[in-house]
Amino acid sequence: MRRRIPISEKFLTMEEKQILNSIRSQTARWNVNNITRTKAYLDFFCSYPEIHWAFLGHMVSRNGGWNMTDLKGDLVSKLMSVETKNVFFSFLERGNWLIFQDAFPQFLLYAECRKRNKGLFYLLPYLNVSVFMQANWEHYWHYNDCYVLAIAQIINEQSYLEHRIIRNPKYKDKVLNSLQFFLQDILSFNHILFPFYKGKKITLLGQTLHQFDSLHERIMLGKRLYYILFNSGEQFGKFFHWAISNPHTGSRKDYWKDVFNDINEGVPGKLSRRLNKCKVKKGEAKLYSPILRMAWNNVQHPAAEIGDWFVQSDVIQYLLKDDLEIKGEIEGDYCEALEKLELAAMAKNIIFK
Questions:
Q1: Crossing angle of helices 52-70/146-161, nearest 10°?
Q2: Shortest CA distance to 97 belongs to which of 153, 27, 162, 147?
Q3: What is the pLDDT of residues 86-109, one digit of tens each?
């Protein structure tokens, strides 16, 4: 990754320095854990609904929290050692933290631009934001193209993670190349779920990612998820209504109270099939899915690696609109994946008992 030459702030005005300091302070205040980050994305979107990525980031970050608590829940946790759980959590938490500390300063600077009614995007390099996003924010400021800005942010955040997480030997060997990651992949458990109310029932739409280590696949996934959220105004309203009605806790109980509980109802040592088509059998305990603050402590992160990922222009092609027609039906596959995980957890318990 090419290192950026440090930019001196000594030539900035006092007002510009105050803006940067305020943005850094606010970002640090919200970048504490998955819960605070996820809330910050939604709060920003409620104030600036034209910035679509903020809502996409909120919904995907919810999924990140659910994946974190799965590591201490009923099913995935039984397939991993304590050490492996800690490494997987570090992988998920570092990625969640990195994206927020890159994306949220951009949002806060945009808010300052709106407040002052003038573009301040020349300050983005002082926040270690890629020149790719500086160009796209300036384009948005002049042309108000919400779609291009949102897709640019998808490209930016996934490219930003590429060397810091995906190609980082610490995670590549212990997570992406591990047996556990492979098992989750073939069990189709890499689901991104978007809940919404259909009458009184909670229904799920979303997508599944198999090749997590492919930058192309992650960008295309982001574009498909964006389509699901924003292609239909009526459907978007349902997603948004669910999001503002259900504060994020990290527990999957947030969307399926009949299947998951944040209190462990299970009997230690008892082995039985509890699920049938995403319904808990009569007399069986719900799946344990803890809230985040009960599962994991807050993490003090080292500073993000310096460097601008934008060294080749080929990613610009992703800004073009694709001829997508995505329904996003995922509930059946997700239910099947849960049942497979339940069987895998039971099998491991029996074999290594």
A1: 40
A2: 27
A3: 988 999 999 999 999 999 999 999
